[in-house]
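Work Package 4 report. The design task specified in the project plan requires that, given a folded chain encoded as structure tokens, an amino acid be chosen for each position. We show below one input record used in the internal validation round.
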């Protein structure tokens, strides 16, 4: 029994019987394609070389999840820098919202890895093996044969190389190079990560493709609330193009000759003349295609062009200053300022004072002894000695088995210390002291602490 048919196509990537509709875009040269190609290659080169770049002794970027150290731009952050990381993520989020309000989905069309690698690495390889759009469609019907097999073999090798570059962001280039010369059995865990990543990259670019943008990506879904009618997008000039009609331009008809070049060029398979759509990644391939047609029929360029909904529909003048494009940068500036202030105030160590394990205090005649645990997190990239002392009035005696305390670079140690105080100095079951920690680089951190002691004065 044949499957029921949908009355019309619901997704550009599906046929009405629910089978996959393969999108085979036709390549049209044009100024936007050239600019995007240059941008894409710059980004691909940056992705490949970034883990090799060093600032001083540190990599430009290293996300060492295993040791929970994150190096960005020469600075190393630890999980205890949660506030800084949260501010950074918020700033990125607001930056994306602002960029979308200004230039629409420019990220999708120009810089998203999905578009960059699909259109400027995997698709050119595909054209090399399978030829033009028409030839690729013939291969779709015939099953592909050896040419498609060879193409997929090259795709797999590229996916493997990309997976290795990806791994270098997490383990560093030195470790990666060492692992590459050893048996996978000696480091099966990262090898499995590379194997899985290779599989995912291959699946995405060989099979899943534009569905990542049209079905899976959440950004496409939230764009409608991020855009307004003045945001930049790639659009069709309806008033100029309609009424469309096939054949040569004639009086009383719009400039669109319904040639279908814009649809054939679209990597997500949509018709831009239907208006703003979730599937549009603003790549402008339809604009290059249409400009080529306009040149042939001797009409002005720009029937499909960058513009806002307002300017395309009513030719209203562009309006750059709107509430959302003013509010977002103010918010972004505030977040960046907070990030800068907190970042500048970040100390090379973090000290936490905790109560000792066991009885809160012991007494010996007129003396009361309390146990404290001092946790020292060395945030710097060199080992350091930390000297502990207690500041208190009246004074107390500190008994510390290891003082100074040696802590390796980026490591954390906890030491137990004992504070001996006069019984008479406790009021209401406690007294205030300050744990003072210094190191050889001039660090000085004070942590207030309340010692627990007897609540009653001895009669
Ligand atoms: S490429 Fe231009 S002229 Fe051709 S169908 Fe699209 S909008 Fe119309
Ligand atoms: S409609 Fe045009 S800009 Fe949008 S995805 Fe298709 S080709 Fe790119």
């Amino acid at each position: 029994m044949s499957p029921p048919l949908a009355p019309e196509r619901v997704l550009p990537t599906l046929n009405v019987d629910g089978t996959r509709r393969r999108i085979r875009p036709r390549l049209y040269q044009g100024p936007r394609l050239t600019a995007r190609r240059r941008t894409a290659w710059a980004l691909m080169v940056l992705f490949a070389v970034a883990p090799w770049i060093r600032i001083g002794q540190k990599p430009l970027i290293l996300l060492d999840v295993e040791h929970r150290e994150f190096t960005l731009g020469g600075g190393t952050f630890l999980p205890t820098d949660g506030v800084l990381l949260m501010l950074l993520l918020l700033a990125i989020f607001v930056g994306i919202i602002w960029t979308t309000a200004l230039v629409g989905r420019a990220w999708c069309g120009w810089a998203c890895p999905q578009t960059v690698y699909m259109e400027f690495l995997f698709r050119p390889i595909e054209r090399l093996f399978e030829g033009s759009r028409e030839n690729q469609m013939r291969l779709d019907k015939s099953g592909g044969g050896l040419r498609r097999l060879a193409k997929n073999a090259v795709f797999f090798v590229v996916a493997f190389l990309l997976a290795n570059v990806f791994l270098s962001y997490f383990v560093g280039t030195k470790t990666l190079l060492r692992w590459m010369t050893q048996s996978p059995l000696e480091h099966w865990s990262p090898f499995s990560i590379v194997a899985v990543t290779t599989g995912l990259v291959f699946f995405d670019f060989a099979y899943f493709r534009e569905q990542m943008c049209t079905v899976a990506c959440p950004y496409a879904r939230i764009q409608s609330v991020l855009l307004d009618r003045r945001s930049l997008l790639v659009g069709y000039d309806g008033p100029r193009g309609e009424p469309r009609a096939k054949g040569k331009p004639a009086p009383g008809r719009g400039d669109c000759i319904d040639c279908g070049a814009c649809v054939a060029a679209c990597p997500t398979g949509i018709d831009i003349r239907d208006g703003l759509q979730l599937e549009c990644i603003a790549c402008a391939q339809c604009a290059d295609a249409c400009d080529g047609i306009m040149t042939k029929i001797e009409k002005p360029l720009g029937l499909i062009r960058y513009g806002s909904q307002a300017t395309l529909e009513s030719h209203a003048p562009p309006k750059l200053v709107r509430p959302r494009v003013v509010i977002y940068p103010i918010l972004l500036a505030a977040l960046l300022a907070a990030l800068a202030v907190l970042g500048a105030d970040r100390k090379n160590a973090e000290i936490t004072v905790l109560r000792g394990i066991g009885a809160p205090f012991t007494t010996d005649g007129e003396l009361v002894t309390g146990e404290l645990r001092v946790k020292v997190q060395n945030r710097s990239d060199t080992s350091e000695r930390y000297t502990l002392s207690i500041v208190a009035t009246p004074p107390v005696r500190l008994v510390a088995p290891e003082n100074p305390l040696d802590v390796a670079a980026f490591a954390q140690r906890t030491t137990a210390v004992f504070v001996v105080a006069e019984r008479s100095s406790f009021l209401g079951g406690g007294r205030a002291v300050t744990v003072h920690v210094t190191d050889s680089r001039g660090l000085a951190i004070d942590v207030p602490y309340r010692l627990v002691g007897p609540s009653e004065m001895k009669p």
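The mean pLDDT is 89. Validation will be extended to a larger panel in the next phase.
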